[in-house]
């Protein structure tokens, strides 16, 4: 009994050490999304290309897809863009949410850097972004074919992120 | 030179207007202003993580202030407004997190440790007192005394 009690400080130290060690590798800027497992919020917004064309959450159903929140003012989006272009060329379905952006600038960007998006939602006032819990572009949601949000990735999707994290998740949704 | 000064003055002017644009909300009464103040101070900015949305200058914080003001105007109560934000950003946005399975350690951990500490302290004190009070430990029994005498004798010889 006494022996065990003497070990107690060591045990406490080890427990604390494990927690702190784990803490070293956590990214505090990565928030768990409150929307995982929930359907896309309802919205009705024009498309970037054509103001007359109205896109709703229904239009995003049918195929699993990436929903990428982007803007021309977002520096990191520029880094991400070529990767999205490559993925789109591979047949990955990507929809865009042009978040709080100037539409003319967005159109210019798409014609200059190529357009990887199947549907491109024009969220000038950021209302859809707010409903999606967006706090900084770029953010990317993975939705399944019923339009349910299954995963959220905050930050730039580069080749490594795609290969190591998102590709498998996307494939899973395709195979469902 | 003169042009530079003019440009700087203009810049200063623009800066003040931009600053003023943050707080141009008109509240119906003092109570509503007070509610707005507590809410924006109690809610955390999702982008700049160690600021509340009252203090933060991030665009998202501005949007959220606007949104909170809109909901106050609509006559929603504090719980509704907080739930609206928690639905979108998770419990993270609350500086005053709810008590649930996930936050149990956070809420009761310190108190638990305190109780544990007092427990250990009492145990040590009680044990020490018991040792002091027990006369048996200070006196030797008859056989022990004989044995001691024997040993001492041996040493002498």
- For this entry, what is the oligomeric state of its chains? heterodimer
Q: Which band does the percent of strand residues of chain B land in?
A: under 5%
What is the H/E string of chain A? HEEEHEHEHEEH
- CATH fold call of chain A: Glutaredoxin
- Total of DSSP H or I helical runs spanning 4+ residues of chain A: 5
- Kindly report the greatest chain-chain contact and the residue count on each side: A-B, 16 and 14 residues
Overall 3D form of chain A: elongated
The rounded distance between the terminal residues' Cα atoms of chain A is 55 Å
List keywords for this structure.
heterodimer, A: 176 residues, alpha/beta, Glutaredoxin, five-stranded mixed β-sheet, two-stranded antiparallel ribbon, 7 strands, 40% helix, elongated, B: 157 residues, mainly alpha, Helicase, Ruva Protein, domain 3, 2 domains, 6 helices, 0% strand
In short:
Chain A has 176 residues and is of the alpha/beta class. Helix content of chain A is 40%, strand content 19%.
Description:
The complex is a heterodimer of chains A (176) and B (157). With 176 residues, chain A is an alpha/beta fold. Chain A has one domain: Glutaredoxin, CATH 3.40.30. A five-stranded mixed sheet of chain A has the order 5-4-3-6-7. Chain A is elongated and about 80 Å long. The mean pLDDT of chain A is 89. With 157 residues, chain B is mainly alpha-helical. Chain B is 66% helix and 0% strand. Chain B is elongated and about 110 Å long. About 4% of the residues of chain B have low confidence. At the A-B interface, loops of A face helix 3 and helix 4 of B.
